[in-house]
């Protein structure tokens, strides 16, 4: 039994689009050496969230935190993600699934992005 972290991104047709998310996953995993950190997508890329949750559940992970790597709470996070998570909870009743807020709505993330924007002048 254990816990895991899934970074959840939208997905895109261009494979190169995933590169920053893969770097974020790797940087996060380096800070959490005892916790599996993975990346899953809503659409267009693999693995999709249901497949990643199933893979972790098969490894006896019983606590999963999903971190939406989105800038804000658009339709995907307001409608699609809650439906997905509801179904995942039904499919994996022994797994507790927590969903964090959108990364872009965190004050520290916004401050770092502001610093970057101001520094770009």
Automatic annotation (TrEMBL):
It comes from the Bacteria. Pfam families: CbiX. InterPro entries: CbiX-like (IPR002762), Sirohydro_Cobaltochel/CbiX (IPR050963). Keywords: Lyase, Metal-binding. GO terms for molecular function: lyase activity; metal ion binding. Transmembrane segments: none annotated. This is Cobalamin biosynthesis protein CbiX. It comes from Massilia eurypsychrophila.
């Amino acid at each position: 039994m254990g816990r895991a972290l899934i970074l959840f991104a939208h997905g895109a047709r261009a494979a190169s689009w995933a590169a920053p998310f893969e770097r974020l996953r790797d940087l996060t995993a380096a800070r959490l050496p005892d916790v599996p950190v993975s990346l899953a997508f809503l659409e267009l890329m693999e693995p999709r969230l249901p497949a990643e949750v199933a893979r972790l559940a098969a490894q006896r992970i019983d606590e999963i935190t999903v971190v939406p790597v989105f800038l804000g709470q658009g339709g995907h996070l307001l409608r699609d993600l809650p439906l997905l998570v509801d179904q995942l909870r039904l499919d994996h009743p022994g797994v507790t699934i927590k969903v964090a807020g959108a990364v872009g709505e965190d004050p520290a993330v916004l401050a770092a992005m502001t610093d970057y924007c101001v520094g770009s002048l």
